[in-house]
Design goal:
mainly beta, 6-stranded antiparallel β-sheet, single chain, protein-folding chaperone binding
Length: 94
Amino acid sequence: MLRPLGNNVILEMKEQEQKTASGIILTDSAKEKSNEGIVAAVGPGRLLENGTRAEMQVKAGDKIIYSPFGGSEVKVGEAKYLVLSEDDVLAVVE
């Protein structure tokens, strides 16, 4: 598992099979990237000028919507993750 630093958020990437309306399974290159995910871990928060940390607005287990162009995909062993800044999180799904 990864431990995020600062105000970074880790999403565990899950492979999702996508099909067209007629049932054709799409190849990886034809798939639409989802911008929805479940938070696996959060960092301690942004370091403020006074030395304290800003509280993170998301927590592990939250289902979120994030900016489609935000984050960096990384692979650790067989697991795939997306590391993004809390600023790239657009909403928490409740």
